[in-house]
Design goal:
alpha+beta; 2 domains; 35% strand; single chain; four-stranded antiparallel beta sheet; globular; 161 residues; 1 helix; 22% helix
């Protein structure tokens, strides 16, 4: 009889602990859902895209450049065609009813068909956010290689401008 009284006395605090922990878990889920649902950044004022070219992977880069795209403008950029690989960038602000997007692609010099292309579709009211280590902006560091020569082009884009 004495053992039953002890078990009965412990049951209510365990139930209270379960109720409190369940309530805390519920609050945590609601807080995390609020973070995911709303925009986490403001709209970027512009972008800067950087590129670096080297004729093969055993030497340092021989040319570098950058291009800035202020938000609100629609613009296109074609890098110098003196190298085996050419960097291209196009930004559409969405101001005229179109999609807000940044498109990046690389061609072999003298050709129009891209070796690679990347499309960054951006929300109209927020972002993007620089998130990659090494100051490689919101695109990360990308590498493209010429199919015949051993040339390499690196590029990335970051918020700013």
């Amino acid at each position: 009889m004495n053992k039953l009284a002890t078990v009965a006395a412990l049951a209510p605090p365990i139930m209270v602990l379960r109720l409190v922990s369940g309530a805390l878990l519920g609050l945590l889920v609601v807080a995390l859902a609020a973070c995911v649902d709303g925009p986490t950044t403001t709209r970027a004022g512009g972008f800067v895209c950087y590129y670096a070219y080297r004729p093969n992977v055993t030497v340092d880069s021989t040319s570098q450049g950058s291009v800035s795209f202020p938000d609100g403008d629609t613009a296109q950029y074609v890098g110098p065609e003196t190298n085996d690989l050419v960097f291209h960038a196009q930004y559409g602000s969405g101001a005229t009813g179109g999609e807000r997007a940044l498109r990046l692609w690389v061609t072999a010099a003298g050709l129009t068909e891209p070796l690679t292309t990347h499309l960054y579709q951006l929300p109209s009211d927020s972002g993007p956010v620089d998130q990659f280590a090494g100051d490689h902006g919101f695109t990360g560091l990308n590498y493209v290689y010429h199919p015949n020569s051993r040339a390499e082009l690196q590029f990335w884009c970051a918020v700013g401008g």
